[in-house]
Design brief:
Strand content of chain B: under 5%
Radius of gyration of chain C: 20 Å
Strand order of the largest sheet of chain C: 6-7-8-3-9-10
Helix content of chain C: 25-40%
Number of strands of chain B: 4
Shape of chain C: globular
Oligomer: heterotrimer
Helix content of chain B: over 70%
Number of helices of chain C: 10
Largest sheet of chain B: 2 strands, antiparallel
Chains: A mainly alpha, B mainly alpha, C alpha/beta
Largest sheet of chain C: 6 strands, mixed
Shape of chain B: globular
Order of helices and strands of chain C: EEEHEEHEHHHEHEHEEHHH
């Protein structure tokens, strides 16, 4: 069960960024996976270098965080201003293909930057030691992950509900044309949204880096899972992303526990089942009549 | 407007391929076979796109077709190419008949995601099924065609020739289909579902039908792939990256003609083979860049280049 | 004369909004009926209920004596009811000819079609005839999405006719068409329909048009039918003038202005 929550919180950070981008910009960002990977690689590289130079291991946590956020901060605007901006107005599915192309490009770009060998930076992970709960042992780091995840989610929720920027974002999610008519600078909202999403993805990668070996292909793995969660929760719904992540996490850990063979596809079965029962996901926005 | 030269071109191409076959080197035979079976799968995708839907899960049927072919040889010692193709098409069509009932209710992103989900379910199933070789898959070989035993040196040519014939027949049939009432109805569904229903036709039925056709084509393509390569595994068939390649080729080719998917598949395969050898770490980047360029400048796909030039003349 | 369409105590509410209340009407075969009323009065809701887009909250709709209440648009179309839309619903990427060919083709394959119905060549010919009758010859090969607005409206109507309906519902056929063109459009449409035996109901805001082409008028206000009868009577009806046409008669002022002249 705890496994499920751990898994869920890891996926939540990634899923929430994805659903945010979709909610505001109506773009299903396939490249989210590569942003995750870039964050992981950068964080691992810098943390490794930090530790290699003999600096205090505690500092490596800061390095991870900063690396993740900075990657998102740089990549986000670059992608949005440099590419996506020219594609607005095209059909939704075309934008998915654009982000898919971007994903392909970034996959190789990451390989060029960091090479194809796996990078292992276990120190930050191992440093915190383990925690014993009942007769199960869990690494403390995983709980740090959960904490970061909850913090990120809470911060996002707060920003959206309380700040003016957040309210504008929600307005655009609700009705883009009306927002423009009201004078909201939608173009800037898009930039901010995409950057925020990118930062979340990269952050997710950065904090996951110490728990696994960072190698080519982690982006591809992650993105399909993120899709499943976001679709289950309802595209554009942040609460949905949380619930979706929880469901997927619990289902997956249950599968691993009871029937390991079905682990891989259990997630997709859940996705299919949810879509069958609720064709637009769990928390989907209702649609108005057209004629 | 010039006379429609599509069908004569299809038959001419078939004749050329069949005649040239015995003189082509191994690698050329393989290359053309690959382009042909990929083209067949993409032909099905183009039909779905004509109906307004992009499937991110054609890999499901491609995989079913491949494994059907493989199973016949590996487990039942039936190494007949014709039976493999039929089995592939049938299995794919049957599954699509069932899944299509559900999928035809969805559109846009949700259709794409649900189709993706189903293909990943199959992927997950196969990876964990040791009888079918899990991630390694298993090998197969073709020994006969419609009962006729093929000499060892002729197997490659037989697969190649069969692929060419199937491709030609499928292309010709699709061309006729698109020109018929049902074909027009597909475009109508894409343009305005409301009006279609108000005329008295069932949108669900049109989508279901075209979904099954596209699946059958993917199944045949998968079976041909299995025969050509001699190996099936989950990664190269059911994984979403394979479905993504089909989407890419479909967009790249455009839906302007039944010949377009084959042209697109040829170029794709050429670039992939070449790039994979020389630039194993950047060929995906090249693919991505090409896709972006096509989306930005040739929204109708490669085929629209032909239409543009004809209009100029 | 036979009743082709009958509405019995139709009601429709969307939550707190009453879009239709207590609608009763008998439409006779081969008649031309105008539906008038200000925006939101319930005309389009009535059409939506008859064509199955919306299910009535209560009440019945009978077509040719058969209860079709709550039937889906597809079934309604197959029974022979055609409809045109306020905003033309066309197949934008396809040519005018293809649009009509699809309409003809679907009708030829519907449950209503004769089993010995002609093949595709005859269907294409039928589409051609429609093109001629509705003066669309000049636009035959153009994509519907690129046509001028007035032509799109005509095509929309032609597509409704392509199905060979016995009852035709036109939702504001002349809206968006310039004042000079309105009569020409209606002349052509009515002329094209005369060859068939079709009952026509159309929603219209222009009283001159309603007066000219209809045998009977139904006036709507706030979801109810406030007048039902021949054009002369209805258009002079006090309530209709007040709530639909918008004339207000002030007896005092009229005398004063008459005296001033």
């Amino acid at each position: 069960m705890i496994d499920g929550i751990l898994y869920a919180s890891w996926m939540f950070i990634i899923a929430v960024g994805l659903t945010l981008i979709y909610g505001v910009m109506k773009i299903l960002n396939v490249a989210h996976g590569s942003l995750y990977a870039l964050g992981a690689y950068t964080a691992a590289a810098f943390a490794g270098s930090w530790l290699g130079h003999g600096h205090a291991p505690v500092g490596s946590y800061g390095v991870l965080l900063v690396a993740g956020l900075v990657v998102g901060l740089i990549a986000g605007p670059l992608i949005e201003r440099g590419l996506l901006r020219f594609m607005y107005g095209r059909e939704e599915i075309v934008l998915v293909l654009v982000t898919y192309a971007l994903f392909l490009i970034l996959e190789d770009f990451t390989k060029l930057l960091f090479g194809v060998d796996p990078i292992l930076v276990a120190a930050p992970y191992a440093l915190l030691g383990n925690l014993q709960l009942g007769h199960l042992v869990y690494p403390v780091y995983s709980f740090v992950l959960v904490a970061v995840s909850i913090l990120a989610g809470a911060a996002l929720a707060l920003v959206l509900k309380r700040t003016r920027q957040g309210k504008m974002l929600r307005a655009v999610i609700h009705d883009r044309e009306m927002s423009m008519a009201l004078g909201i600078n939608v173009s800037r909202v898009y930039l901010v949204t995409f950057t925020a999403g990118a930062m979340l993805a990269a952050l997710g990668g950065a904090i996951t880096a110490p728990t696994t070996s960072v190698q080519p292909g982690i982006g591809a793995e992650v993105i399909v899972l993120a899709f499943a969660i976001v679709v289950v929760g309802g595209l554009g719904s942040l609460g949905g992303a949380a619930l979706g992540a929880l469901i997927v996490g619990l289902v997956r850990s249950a599968a691993v526990h009871y029937r390991p063979e079905v682990e891989l596809f259990s997630v997709y079965v859940v996705m299919a089942l949810v879509l069958i029962v609720r064709p637009k996901g769990l928390f989907a926005a209702p649609e108005a009549r057209k004629i | 407007m010039g006379r429609d030269r599509t069908l004569p071109t299809v038959w001419a191409a078939l004749v050329v391929l069949l005649a040239a076959g015995p003189f082509l080197p191994q690698w050329a035979l393989s290359f053309v076979s690959v382009a042909l079976y990929l083209g067949i799968v993409v032909l099905g995708m183009a039909l779905l796109m004509r109906t307004g839907l992009v499937s991110f899960g054609q890999g499901l049927y491609y995989c079913l077709g491949a494994y059907a072919a493989g199973t016949l040889d590996h487990f039942y010692r039936i190494s007949d190419l014709l039976l493999m193709a039929i089995a592939g098409a049938l299995l794919a069509a049957l599954v699509a008949l069932v899944l299509g009932l559900l999928l035809a209710k969805y559109r846009d992103i949700f259709f794409a995601m649900l189709s993706l989900a189903f293909s990943m379910i199959l992927y997950g199933l196969l990876v964990k099924t040791s009888v079918l070789g899990s991630t390694d898959g298993f090998g197969l070989s073709v020994k006969t065609f419609a009962g006729v035993v093929l000499g060892r040196h002729w197997v490659r040519y037989a697969i190649y020739a069969f692929a060419a014939v199937i491709a030609a027949v499928c292309a010709a049939a699709m061309h006729r289909y698109l020109d018929s009432h049902l074909g027009r109805l597909a475009g109508a569904v894409r343009d305005n579902e409301l009006r279609v229903e108000y005329m008295g036709a069932s949108v669900h039925r049109v989508i279901h039908l075209n979904y099954v056709i596209a699946a059958a084509l993917a199944g045949v393509g998968g079976a041909l792939m299995a025969a050509t390569i001699g190996h099936v595994d989950p990664e190269t068939t059911a994984n979403w990256t394979t479905s993504g390649e089909f989407v890419f080729i479909a967009i790249f080719s455009g839906t302007g003609s039944v010949l377009a998917p084959f042209l697109g598949a040829s170029i794709f395969e050429a670039v992939r083979t070449f790039a994979l050898e020389r630039f194993p770490n950047t060929w995906q980047m090249a693919l991505g860049v090409t896709m972006l360029l096509v989306i930005m400048f040739l929204p109708g796909g490669l085929w629209s280049m032909f239409r543009l030039s004809r209009r100029g003349a | 004369m036979a009743t082709i369409l009958e509405a019995r105590n139709l009601n429709k509410s969307f939550g707190a909004v009453t879009a239709a209340a207590d609608i009763n009407a008998h439409i006779e075969q081969d008649s031309v009926v105008g539906l008038i009323g200000s925006n939101g009065a319930g005309k389009t809701t009535f059409i939506n209920m008859v064509t199955g887009y919306v299910t009535p909250t209560s009440g019945q709709i009978l077509y040719e004596g058969r209860d079709v209440t709550g039937m889906q648009p597809r079934g309604i179309a197959q029974l022979g009811i055609g409809r045109s839309f306020q905003i033309p619903q066309l197949f934008n990427t396809m040519s005018v000819h293809e649009n009509l060919a699809i309409g003809v083709g679907v009708a030829a394959r519907s449950t209503r079609a004769r089993p010995d119905a002609p093949g595709e060549a005859a269907e294409r010919a039928q589409a051609e005839r429609l093109i001629e009758r509705f003066n669309l010859g000049g636009y035959r090969t153009q994509a519907a999405g690129l046509l001028p607005e007035g032509v799109r409206k005509v095509l929309d109507i032609a597509m409704a006719v392509a199905g060979g309906p016995r009852l035709l519902l036109l939702d504001e056929p002349t809206s968006g068409v310039s004042a000079q063109e309105k009569f020409r459009l209606m002349d052509m449409v009515m002329g094209a329909l005369q060859a068939e035996r079709v009952t026509v109901l159309f929603v219209e805001h222009d009283m001159d048009i309603v007066n000219r082409y209809t045998h009977r008028i139904l006036a709507f206000y706030e979801g109810r039918i406030i007048a039902d009868g021949d054009p002369d009577r209805v258009l002079k009806d006090a309530e209709v003038r007040r709530y639909v046409i918008g004339e207000q008669i002030h007896p005092g002022r009229k005398d004063a202005s008459a005296a001033a002249h």
